[in-house]
From TrEMBL, chains A, B, C:
Name of protein: Aspartate carbamoyltransferase
The reaction(s) this protein catalyses: carbamoyl phosphate + L-aspartate = N-carbamoyl-L-aspartate + phosphate + H(+)
Annotated family: Belongs to the aspartate/ornithine carbamoyltransferase superfamily. ATCase family.
Lineage: Bacteria, Bacillati, Bacillota, Bacilli, Bacillales
UniProt binding sites for L-aspartate: 77, 160, 209
GO cellular component: cytosol
Origin species: Fictibacillus macauensis ZFHKF-1
Binding annotation for carbamoyl phosphate: 49-50, 99, 127, 130, 250-251
Function of the molecule: Catalyzes the condensation of carbamoyl phosphate and aspartate to form carbamoyl aspartate and inorganic phosphate, the committed step in the de novo pyrimidine nucleotide biosynthesis pathway.
Length: 305, 305, 305
């Protein structure tokens, strides 16, 4: 069984295939499994984009969606994630999509769960479908990543997107920098750039949301001060190269990471990212379900990694 | 793009068409869009009738329903309604149905949202599909509204139904009166009638729910006293004309606006209203989706009003 | 109208038919109603297995599912269960599945609701689809129940499963015993057995969950002490007969009723029970919907019991 825990679960060839499939889905190609197929979506944290986007992707593939609402489930009676997932498997789910607040929640699952697990975000860990949709958005713009300068700016420490994306983008040939408050960058592998440098050099300026809900200590920086020192202000945007683009995984704190007026400006790809998200998730679901079928047909189990 | 914010968005001809379509749907007529179509339902306030009724209508038309649960969405991370709706548009929603506690929430949306917005209730403002289903229920009974006496009784001040209905019913030729505690009727356009007058004169007695959750000051009237002074008691009902009917948008406070025993009495149309609601919403969804298609086919955009 | 309130609503012949249908569904048999059919699921208590299992069953039969979320419904405005169900009937639900914290909640409903009510658990009362899936699981193992020893062990007092199952299993010929803390067994009809006796004599050892959330007084027994005195420990399991099986309706308190290691051991049927649950619920839904059709075709109403 192959799971999608992080982009490290994917070979470069698989990534290329996924982006190809996503592109074909965006052009209207149809695919559906031969038999009625159930996907269980387990979201233990609030989500609009990822949850709705997985659901739209599932419906576009003709899949049956089992929506697991943690607040109305046996989680309230103390049931573990493992037992909940094992239950959904017993009930007939052919794959599960999980967002959970615990880093690497999937480690408790992979050994005994016999259906693909698609990670829709684990704590401050990984968010592989976000990384894939970001990659697709950049490829649509620049075709190849070789030599591109990508600056990921903001709340790196609490972001499951930042490190996944950095790793994936470097693997595809991009030069990746981090930006934002310096005290958030201890023990980081990526080179640092101030926001003033970033706007001049970046081909892709990837802003991250300040995740107020994950900050345990109170920040000493006000949001207005943050915007002036580390955010994409209207003034800074004017210094960007004509061809460079702005990305953000959203939800956006308007006026903090990015000026309100820039969210829908001509170089923003923020809503394009969301649109790509549906097609990338269709491709990932197809990959997971076809994988499963092959294993069953062949009668042997590919190692669970 | 045409939205349904209030009944004022509809011409009299459009209203007649919608009621005609609703009637045909009630008789079993089928209609479905040519391609897979997604509707996002965003309910920010509790709802049983309107939410379930829109969902039933959507399924009867073969539409895919994206259920947005505010309590498990990025609304919890501070995302605005505008950004949530824009997200759903980017993800592929072809229309949105919204109930929100803020009066005229749609004013922030109409300028930049490119898909139809169907208002399922805004604060103390409007509830156009309720007004349409009420109109259909009255037409089924009396065929024409010209000259009918309709009394809307109760919590006018907090009701998004009262004013919408009054406006629509007068436009269709009915004589509309308000009834209920006099201190709730400052600055009203409609003539006042006591409940004792109302039961004798009304062809349609439209009771409203006391919206305890919207009252900011504590009421000085107990529910038992309210029932005796302003409610439809068993005694008052006996004075109604043989042909007159009782309506209520529900949920009903049994024993307050209306005696428990009268909720399902022979002149009550309360559950008939709910049944009509499904067909009226099917007609509204068809109207919104066909509208959208015409605009795309013609290649120009009808003014967003 | 026939409802499924408890297994007492079913004749032995009907039970046999339901288990036959469930078995055929498990083998892949298809059945769907002739016209589009709506089922409303109303869950007023947290549930994973029962809720997801009913939903999977409904989708496998091609039914449209209306998911009623109590926390976002007019229940929040004080609407009664009766009015909510009546509303769903008016909106077009062809049957309702209800879990509610009130014992015998259905007594307020059966007189005036014209669609089948399927009880998915009432307070500490009944849980008929659980009893049926337990029966199916035992029949798959032993074919006939005549003469089998079944021990139901644990929190009998708060369990809606214990008494329903005892009654049904005795009707099918099994010898039923209860086990667990003696102070929980006042006024019980079933003979008592200690857990040490149970593991040696039972063909079926049916463990129940300690329902912490239903205990009003604080228990004086710690969970570790409970496990040692009344639970299925690793040591006790070794004394079980080679052919005997372990069952549990779940969610399991691992390390309390049952040792963690035994939940997925070779004699555990815990996840098999969940799998059977989907097929049993398909059979129950078919039974309820066909029932309804016959009544309509025949033009007369079978007494509502």
């Amino acid at each position: 069984m192959k799971h999608l825990r992080s982009v490290d679960d994917l070979s470069t060839w698989e990534i290329e295939q996924l982006l190809h499939d996503a592109t074909m889905f965006a052009k209207g190609e149809q695919w559906a499994p031969a038999a009625q197929t159930f996907i269980a979506n387990l979201f233990f944290e609030p989500s609009t984009r990822t949850k709705m986007s997985f659901e739209a992707a599932e419906r576009k593939l003709g899949l049956e969606v089992l929506q697991f609402e943690a607040s109305m489930s046996s989680t309230q009676k103390g049931e573990t994630l493992y037992d909940s997932v094992k239950t959904l498997e017993a009930i007939g789910a052919n794959a599960v999509v999980i967002r959970h607040q615990q880093d690497r929640y999937f480690e408790d699952l992979v050994e005994n769960i016999q259906i693909p697990i698609i990670n829709a975000g684990d704590g401050c860990g990984h968010h592989p479908t976000q990384s894939l949709l970001d990659l697709l958005t950049i490829q649509q713009e620049f075709i190849v990543l070789q030599g591109l300068t990508v600056v990921i700016a903001g709340d790196i420490r609490h972001s499951r997107v930042a490190r996944s994306n950095a790793s994936l983008l470097k693997r595809m040939g991009a030069n990746v920098y981090f930006s934002g408050p310096e005290e958030w960058f201890q023990h980081n592998d990526e080179p640092y750039m101030t926001m003033d440098e970033a706007v001049e050099k970046a081909d892709v300026l990837m802003l991250l949301r300040i995740q107020h809900e994950r900050h345990q200590e109170k920040s000493t920086v006000t949001t207005a001060a943050y915007h002036q020192r580390y955010g994409l202000t209207v003034e800074r945007e004017k210094k960007m190269k004509p061809t460079s683009i702005i990305m953000h995984p959203a939800p956006v704190n308007r006026g903090v990471e990015i000026a309100h007026e820039l969210v829908e400006c001509s170089r923003s790809r923020i809503f394009k990212q969301m649109n790509n998200g549906v097609y990338v998730r269709m491709a990932v679901l197809k990959w997971a379900l076809e994988q499963q079928k092959e294993e069953k047909v062949d009668g042997y189990s590919i190692s669970g990694r």
